[in-house]
Design goal:
Blueprint: H1 60-64, H2 70-77, H3 81-86, E1 89-93, E2 96-97, E3 99-102, E4 105-109, E5 115-116, E6 124-125, H4 127-137, H5 146-149, E7 153-155, E8 161-171, E9 174-187, H6 197-203, E10 204-205, E11 210-211, E12 214-218, H7 224-237, E13 249-253, E14 261-262, E15 265-266, E16 274-278, H8 282-292, E17 297-300, H9 306-317, E18 321-327, H10 331-334, H11 338-345, E19 351-356, E20 363-368, H12 378-390
Parallel strand pairs: 12-18, 12-19, 13-16, 13-17, 17-18
Antiparallel strand pairs: 1-3, 1-9, 2-6, 3-4, 4-5, 7-8, 8-9, 10-11, 14-15, 19-20
Helix pairs in contact: 8-9
């Protein structure tokens, strides 16, 4: 006979601070923004075993709890410390069990926080729980977040992203808004100080005292945003041990995930010499940064279509070094994206970093010169640009 599973008494007591559940009201009632933790005073990277004056103690899952319906938050607060530390996603699907995703895979979560294999033992996500969570995430104003949600996501304080599925309203082939929510995927944004250490030597160009133009590739959830954030932090602060001075960096943070600004102020550590254009479209932001902020480096997440590619080309031509990410499993995938492949083949990007989620997110699979067939050197790219301009072409 199967032994009955014990239900923890934590269900009867608040697992998160009182007053944090329900719809956030005025700014004073909203989840507090945690200050950026201090780093080593010498600006060096954090190596395993290195002494740290003020080690970070950020609990990313705790930041997420106030944005969830109370039963969901209580279940997640009851997770064991080892599971809690590895949570990458929290998935809510109407009529189905609550699930957390870690590097080891997905597990269902019971009401008391135990991870279980059977669906009927897990906390059921009712349509009411899903709708309550959605209203909390939108701060009780779904219509104020229409511009974000019609792109399939919204961003919470701390840079955590909420992916949305359900019924869409489409007019003339364009998505107007989300009509009914069927599922929510909360992706936790995490800081990993020092995670860029393995690629610094490949990215840094000592002769120019600047980073090389670098494109970071990975599938979703493999750590490219986290790696880019740490690259920005280290370049902005400087790494004296590696001969890297502090540089002026402009971050174009269209989705609010890199710096996670609140009222224009970064809540993630992006370094002391970094300016952030929060919520700004990449193409417009790159142009603004180059014209007004005098950056040495411009960084942004998820390089997309032709307009983004053209803005990157203009920034590089203006003498600004570019750090960017893009969705692609590897350079073979990249070659199938015409706008991005064109930039690489023309020699604009001098380095490509490929990440994988195996055995864990952020694993560096390759860091070096581009290996896309037909790639030219950067010198060839510059010669082509000069020759085109000499002929009066754009």
């Amino acid at each position: 006979m199967a032994m009955a599973r014990r239900v923890d008494s934590r269900l009867d007591s608040p697992a998160v601070p009182a007053g944090t559940h329900g719809v956030p009201g005025p700014a004073t009632d909203r989840p507090p923004v945690q200050p950026v933790p201090k780093r080593r005073q010498d600006g060096g990277a954090l190596h395993p075993g290195a002494a740290v004056d003020n080690p970070p103690v950020r609990d990313d899952l705790a930041e997420l709890l106030p944005w969830l319906a109370p039963p969901v938050a209580r279940a997640l607060a009851g997770l064991s410390p080892d599971v809690r530390a590895g949570v990458e996603e929290v998935r809510l699907r109407a009529g189905r069990p609550l699930e957390v995703v870690t590097a080891a895979g997905g597990r269902f979560v019971a009401p008391d926080g135990q991870t279980v294999d059977e669906e009927d033992e897990a906390l059921p996500v009712t349509p009411g729980l899903l709708e309550q969570t959605w209203q909390i995430a939108c701060e009780a104003s779904v219509y104020s977040r229409v511009d974000e949600t019609r792109h399939g996501y919204l961003t919470l304080p701390g840079g955590h992203r909420v992916g949305v599925s359900g019924r869409l309203l489409v007019e003339d082939g364009r998505i107007r808004r989300l009509r009914h929510v069927g599922g929510l995927n909360f992706r936790l944004a995490r800081e990993r100080p020092g995670c860029a250490d393995p690629v610094l030597d490949a990215v840094w160009e000592a002769a120019a005292a600047l980073p090389r133009h670098t494109l970071i590739l990975s599938p979703p959830g493999a750590g490219k945003t986290t790696l880019l954030r740490d690259l920005v932090r280290q370049l902005s602060r400087g790494v004296p041990a590696r001969g890297i001075p502090g540089l002026r960096v402009s971050v174009v943070d269209e989705r609010g995930e890199l710096a996670a600004c609140r009222d224009g102020v970064p809540t993630r550590d992006v370094g002391p010499r970094t300016d952030v254009l929060d919520g700004c479209p990449k193409a417009a932001g790159i142009e603004m940064a180059v014209r007004a902020l005098n950056p040495q480096v411009v960084a942004f997440d998820e390089l997309g279509g032709a307009r983004d590619a053209l803005a990157v080309e203009e920034a590089a031509h203006a003498g600004v070094r570019v750090l960017a990410t893009a969705h692609a499993a590897d350079e073979v995938d990249l070659a199938r994206r015409p706008s991005l492949a064109r930039l690489v083949r023309q020699g604009l990007f001098q380095r490509v970093v490929v990440l994988t989620s195996r055995p864990r997110p952020g694993t560096v699979r390759y860091a070096g010169p581009p290996r896309v067939p037909g790639t030219r050197s950067r010198d060839a790219w510059l010669v082509r640009r000069i020759s085109l301009e000499g002929r009066g072409l754009p």
